[in-house]
Amino acid sequence: MKFVVTTAAVALIAASLSGAGHAAEAREIGWEELTGPTTPIENPFETLTTEQMENLARVLRLDTIAEEDNDKDAAADAKALRGVLYDQGVKVDFLLSERLRIMAQLEAEASAPNAEVVGKTIRIPGYLLPLEMNGDTATEFLLVPTIGACIHVPPPPANQIVRVSYPEGFETDGYYTPIWITGELRNEPSVSELFLVDGSDDVSATYQLKATSVELYE
After folding, report:
1. Which of 10, 37, 118, 216 lies most in the core, judged by the most C-beta atoms within 10 Å?
2. What is the CA radius of gyration of the chain?
3. All domains of the chain, ordered by start, with CATH?
4. Is the pTM of this model over 0.90?
5. What contacts 24, CB < 8 A, 6 or more positions away?
6. Are 190 and 162 contacting, i.e. CB atoms less than 8 angstroms apart?
7. What is the Cα–Cα distance from 119 to 209, expressed in whole angstroms?
8. Beta strands in 6-136, from DSSP E residues, in sequence order
9. Whether residue 161 has pLDDT greater than 80
10. How many CB atoms lie within 10 A of CB 108?
């Protein structure tokens, strides 16, 4: 029996092979490439003196006490201190609202993905923090950029954490194992409960990745 391979079939096979080869190529990246877009922030507090900054912080604390505890004395002290600052030309309520706006912007930027790497097959180094274990192997884990992240210091920004799935499992001897991971990076935010020696903590990650390989960093 003879098989006839048409020109169209040859083209289809070539295209599929080309696509498979492209999909297998991993782009090696650094953690800075996971950072999303940011907008410069003008500092609205730069003209304040140290004393004015301290008094502004005191107003914020007094406002919080007055609201949470229905404390009339705190409300009166806050009002008096506002008057002092306004007499000095300090726009207290505007600056406090700017504080909230800047905090919201920084929080949003800390979890924003970089569209240029989403959907790409990447290779990136980092440290493994186990989430799910199968015997001595980690099948689900967080990859973080620095040793001790989330353990001895607050977690990095969400867009500096990757949740990794590796059903094959990777044998690990603790939180200080440096590794390389390879796989397709996805923008799928998640919150994972990370168990530590002294309890547990919820850690947010912007990215997820189903690893095709996990290797010791050498």
Report:
1. 118
2. 26
3. 27-36+113-216 (2.40.50.870), 50-111 (no CATH)
4. no
5. 121
6. no
7. 10
8. 27-28, 121-134
9. yes
10. 12
